[in-house]
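lol ok so funny story. i was supposed to be doing the assay writeup but got distracted and ended up predicting the structure for this chain instead. priorities right. anyway since i did it might as well share w the group, maybe its usefull for someone
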Amino acid sequence: MGNKTKEQRELILPESRPEVRKVDGEPTKIIGYAVRWDQLSHPIFGMFQERFKRGAFAASLINPDVYASWQHDAREILGRTPGTLLVTEDDIGLRYEITPPSWAEKYVETIERGDVRGSSFIFRPTKEEWDETNPDMPIRSVIEAELFEVSPVTTPAYPQSSVGIRSAEEVFQERTGDDDTLLGYTDEELDMIMLEHDMRMRKLNL
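and the output, tada:
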């Protein structure tokens, strides 16, 4: 079942940090991976884990209209396909290469110093599968998806807000086509889950 809602994910792992590439005579590049194939996410608000299958974005990249922003701020556009942003799939995952504007030099410096350590992307899944062998932690495999945005980020593994929790809950419900609220959290309970999740991520140094 395809989810009609856009979703946001972050990848913050030592081997996935964005990097800056400077070659004499060529423009500066910001290079990173937004996705690594078949890599299980951390539990998404305790509901499920997620992975992307190789080739998930192949159809979306045929004639892409994808932009790169700084920290998902639409006022801070770093590049856009097909001119200043290149997004490709390789054996590792979904790779992006941004040619940032001159005013973004301050952001380039934060990546070079290692202050910005993550990559994020916004997508809409169009084909997915669920493995519920472990009923306590189902695994969602995204087979096909549309790509909208990539972004260097500093935030932890997933958005720290009640909006992020409700989005995850919607995804979890849609796996069975159940429109009723499965978890029934109040706003206060969502705030507590958000706080506990943030504390876990801090302990993991993510």
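Strands lie at 7-11, 19-21, 29-36, 49-52, 67-70, 73-80, 85-89, 93-98, 118-131, 139-153. Confidence is low (pLDDT under 50) at residues 156-163.
back to the writeup now i swear
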